[in-house]
Amino acid sequence: MANKRKALTPSPSPKPGRGGQEVPKAERSRLIKVIHTAQRELKLGEADYRATLEGVTGKRSCSDMDAAELMKVVERMRELGFKPKGGKTRKGKLSPKTRGTAASEDQRSKIRALWIECYNLGVVKNRYEQGLNKFVRRMTAVDQVDWLVRAEDCNKVIEALKAMKKRGEDDAGGEA
Questions:
Q1: Which of the residues in the chain have pLDDT under 50?
Q2: Which residues, 6+ apart, have CB-to-CB distance to 173 below 8 Å?
Q3: If 0-12 CB within 10 Å is exposed, 13-18 middle and 19+ buried, where does residue 104 land?
Q4: What is the DSSP annotation of 88-105?
Q5: What is the C-alpha to C-alpha distance for residues 26 and 16, in angstroms, rounded to an integer?
Q6: What is the pLDDT of residues 96-122, one digit of tens each?
Q7: Maximum Cα–Cα distance for the chain, whole Å?
Q8: From residue 123, how far is each of 97, 109, 154, 159 by CA, in Å?
């Protein structure tokens, strides 16, 4: 019944932040996510979590708090030992697991160059990316060249293309 009542009430305007300014909904959502992450990482039970919220702001729910109160809760979570990770990883940075084995853009460029050379030698009939992607899929079970992230897979494709190119050069040399 409470859910029905909540759905019928109009949604409140954005909560005011510091200095009475309205804070974007996305910022409030981000702060709430940080608080929930802190709750999980600090292994706070529901009762401890609610007691912490109430102790800091006098409110038992993040949805009832404004941005300034949410910031106070985040600060309290830090005092309890929570260390925010600093957001999502930036594009281009690799996790430690893949750091030494990641394929580079240079390897993918070399794959494309070898593919075109094989086409020019007549070894490959389809010079377009679609044909190259089919070849890569057969070699590595990865659907597209751009999705090759392991250096091992790139090297496998490069070596196969080099062998195809050599055969094409040998065939062209034998005919002349």
A1: 1, 3-20, 89, 94-95
A2: none
A3: exposed
A4: SPPTT---TTTGGGBPPH
A5: 13
A6: 555 555 677 888 899 999 999 999 999
A7: 89
A8: 37, 19, 20, 15
How far apart CA 81 and CA 75 sit, in angstroms, is: 10
Token code pair at residue 137: 């899929």
pLDDT at 27: 83
Rg (CA), the chain: 28
Q: What are phi and psi of 170, to 5 degrees?
A: -65, -40
Q: How many CA atoms lie within 13 A of 134 on its CB side?
A: 7
CA distances from residue 80 to 37, 41, 45, 48 in whole angstroms, order as listed: 13, 11, 14, 12
